[in-house]
Specification:
By secondary structure, this protein is α/β, with parallel strands linked by helices. The protein has a single domain, classed as Phosphoenolpyruvate-binding domains (TIM Barrel). Helices cover 47% and strands 16% of the residues. It has an 8-stranded parallel β-barrel, surrounded by 9 helices. Helix 2 links the parallel strand 1 (16-21) and strand 2. Helix 4 packs across helix 5. The longest helix is centred in the last third of the chain and has 20 residues, at 235-254. The relative contact order is 0.13.
Length: 257
């Protein structure tokens, strides 16, 4: 069983370096590993990627020793643990608003005695049974992770109970969805207050927390507040930035009087 860099960082009390990938770009995995990232947030919630495409990327994560934190488009139990069998290091599940849903996810992706994940032991995660062995299920529980996303007002209210759920390894705030729901409700709650509640709940129960960071200043702020699961950078933003910069260069060169 490959050792998770995300869990190593969490257990050492360090910041996890995460970047995002939403398109089928195999070279991105190599470059992210080369530049020192611990994990790639592989987004299959808002981006289209086939099962075979996902499977074909997994050996690259293992070859270049970088975690795959996969955000799936399904909550189907067997589909979730199939991602782990195919080589994903962990899952990040969107819209987890209750401890009951968090516990249901634990049941799907953790082996007994923590959860109720189905056993095959012949997937890529165990080198197709060649390195499975009698300790496979314990190693899988130890080296794979479950991150749940808080993205609703109900989730903020339940943050303490969600963080207390055994088998949940961390909480990731979704500022886009949560911010939308705050804006469209009558609540006086702010995103900053929601983040503080989540951080307090995670500190109380010994769980990691984090969220996306748009700038170096915000990255520094959240790290100073104890955030460990910090995502910064991704393919979508990089493409936009590159095209905008290149277009501006054309403007300066080609539009000279």
């Amino acid at each position: 069983m490959r050792t998770s860099k995300v869990l190593q960082r969490i257990r050492a009390g360090e910041v996890v370096r995460i970047c995002a990938l939403g398109h089928y770009i195999p070279a991105f995995i190599r470059h992210a590993a080369h530049f020192g990232f611990d994990a790639i947030w592989l987004d299959c919630e808002h981006r289209a990627m086939s099962t075979r495409e996902i499977q074909s990327l997994m050996p690259l994560f293992h070859q270049f020793d970088i975690d795959c934190m996969l955000r799936p488009s399904t909550l189907d139990k067997t589909s979730l643990y199939r991602y782990l069998e195919d080589g994903a290091t962990g899952l990040m599940i969107p819209h987890v608003s209750t401890p009951e849903k968090a516990q249901s996810l634990v049941q799907s992706v953790k082996f007994p005695p923590i959860g109720d994940r189905g056993l095959d032991g012949a997937g890529y995660d165990s080198d197709f049974i060649l390195q499975g062995g009698e300790n496979y299920t314990d190693e899988a529980n130890r080296e794979t992770f479950l991150i749940v996303q808080i993205e609703t007002l109900e989730a903020v209210e339940n943050a303490d109970a969600i963080a207390a759920t055994e088998g949940v390894d961390g909480i990731f705030i979704g500022p886009g969805d949560l911010g939308l729901r705050i804006k469209k409700s009558n609540t006086s709650l702010t995103l900053d207050e929601a983040r503080a509640r989540v951080a307090a709940a995670c500190a109380k129960h010994g769980k990691a927390w984090g969220l996306p960071t748009a700038s170096e200043e915000i990255l520094a702020q959240y790290a100073s507040e104890g955030g460990q699961l910090l995502a910064h950078g991704g393919d979508f933003g990089a493409l936009m930035e590159m095209l905008e910069t290149s277009s501006q260069r054309f403007d300066r060169v080609c539009d000279k009087p």
